[in-house]
Amino acid sequence: MTDEQNRVVEEAVESQPELPEEVPEEAAAPAGEADELTALKQQLEETKAREAEYLDGWRRARAELANARKRFEREQEQAYANAKAYVLARLLPIVDDLERAFATLPSNLSGLTWIGGVLLIQRKLQMLLEQEGVTPIEAEGQPFDPLLHQAITHEPSDTVPEGHIISELQRGYRLGDQVLRPSMVRVSSGPPPAPEGEAEAEVEPTI
Predict the structure, then answer these.
(1) For residues 144 and 165, is the Cβ–Cβ distance under 8 A?
(2) How do the domains of the chain map onto residue ranges?
(3) Count of H helices and E strands in the chain?
(4) What are the tens digits of pLDDT across the range 64-102?
(5) CA 197, CA 186: separation in Å to the nearest integer?
(6) Closest CA to 90 of 129, 41, 143, 144
(7) Which of 9, 19, 148, 184 is the most exposed place for a label (fewest CB within 10 A)?
(8) What is the CATH T-level fold of the domain 38-132, as seen in this structure?
């Protein structure tokens, strides 16, 4: 290539316009669109945060409602059990009166028709208590338990060990684990002390 031709090529290259440098896509976008995109992203984050907050609040409210329902059911069951125990305990004096009446009934009256009718009422009442789960408390010969028994007297006894019940004065009853009425009992305080004369006779003479 001649010098003339080289000169023509160089002039042609120099005369070409310069291409702009590449810019990032976001920078190439108009400023208004970039601000709008940023605002939309911020709104999306705020919406997600509110959604998580509402979901957490809903879960908490649901758990509190379930706990309140369970607490109400327990309180309702307890109230029913207390009312049932109260009514059954009010029937116990009637049972006592009927038992005492038949225990002292003269033999010449036992065959009367109306006596048989009252006896039938007593049996029905006892059956009702049994069906409701009421059971008598064991007392005579048992170790004294302040949760089940009420001591009326403490007496010496040669036959009943100390701290055990000699006899029952009034029967006690329980409903499951709940005591409707404790048994009124006589409690042994152990063997009576030996008379002074016998105590002196037991002392061995010294040599």
Answers:
(1) yes
(2) 38-132, 134-193
(3) 5, 6
(4) 999 999 999 999 999 999 999 999 999 999 999 999 999
(5) 29
(6) 129
(7) 19
(8) Hemagglutinin Ectodomain; Chain B (3.90.20)
